[in-house]
């Protein structure tokens, strides 16, 4: 017996199987809702979830102001150090077309923090942040070309968090909130 009749027979039986109607139970929306409500809801834990609100962190005003001042100072110091160290390794074209952008996040219980965004193809491994000696703040400075970008922080590889100090970007359709970064045109050297 040749292979061709077997192939034709297999093709015919597959075609018949695909053409047979599949019985489907009618959809009962109320049963579906009951089944969904019966599922246990995940309970977030940790420092972030105890202080989170829909618009950011719920910190007392003095703590928030102190944190902001510390973040700005630490960002300036880290940026100056990284700029001195990193300027020699950046290509002249990248330096000319880009600006150093300093990211900082207070996450004392995190073991790993990265920044992701349009500028690094949302790759959680592309831009790891470094924990400062204080043990609470994570920072990184990177060269970013002029433009508008959406970005977020990834804590311990699984929690995506918009920058609490930046404006929130419009929804991205992927279920993660992100922040907006605008890098203005660089200074022209004349």
Tally of helical runs: 5
Mean pLDDT: 76
Helix content: 25-40%
Spatial separation of the terminal alpha carbons: 84 Å
Q: SSE order, as H and E?
A: HHHEEHHEEEEEEE
Number of strands: 9
The share of residues in extended strands comes to: 15-25%
User: In this structure, how is the largest beta sheet organized?
Assistant: 4 strands, antiparallel
Which stretches are poorly predicted, pLDDT < 50 over at least 5 residues? 87-95
Radius of gyration: 26 Å
Structural class: alpha+beta
What is the global morphology? elongated
Topology overview:
Blueprint: H1 3-19, H2 29-38, H3 47-51, E1 52-53, E2 56-57, H4 61-86, H5 92-97, E3 98-106, E4 113-117, E5 130-131, E6 137-145, E7 147-155, E8 159-161, E9 179-183
Antiparallel strand pairs: 1-2, 3-6, 4-7, 5-6, 7-8, 7-9
């Amino acid at each position: 017996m040749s292979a061709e009749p077997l192939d034709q027979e297999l093709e015919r039986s597959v075609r018949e199987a695909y053409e047979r109607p599949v019985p489907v139970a009618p959809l009962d929306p109320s049963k579906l809702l009951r089944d969904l409500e019966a599922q246990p809801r995940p309970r977030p834990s940790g420092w972030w979830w105890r202080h989170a609100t829909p618009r950011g962190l719920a910190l007392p005003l003095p703590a928030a102001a102190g944190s902001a001042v510390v973040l700005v100072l630490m960002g300036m110091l880290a940026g100056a150090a990284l700029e001195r160290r990193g300027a020699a390794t950046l290509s002249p074209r990248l330096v000319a077309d880009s600006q150093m952008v300093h990211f900082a996040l207070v996450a004392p219980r995190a073991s790993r923090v990265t920044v992701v965004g349009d500028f690094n193809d949302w790759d959680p491994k592309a831009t790891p942040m470094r924990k400062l000696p204080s043990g609470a703040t994570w920072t990184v400075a990177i060269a970013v070309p002029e433009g508008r970008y959406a970005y977020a922080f990834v804590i311990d590889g699984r929690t995506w968090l918009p920058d609490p100090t930046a404006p929130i970007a419009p929804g991205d359709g992927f279920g993660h909130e992100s922040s907006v970064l605008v890098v203005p045109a660089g200074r022209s050297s004349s």
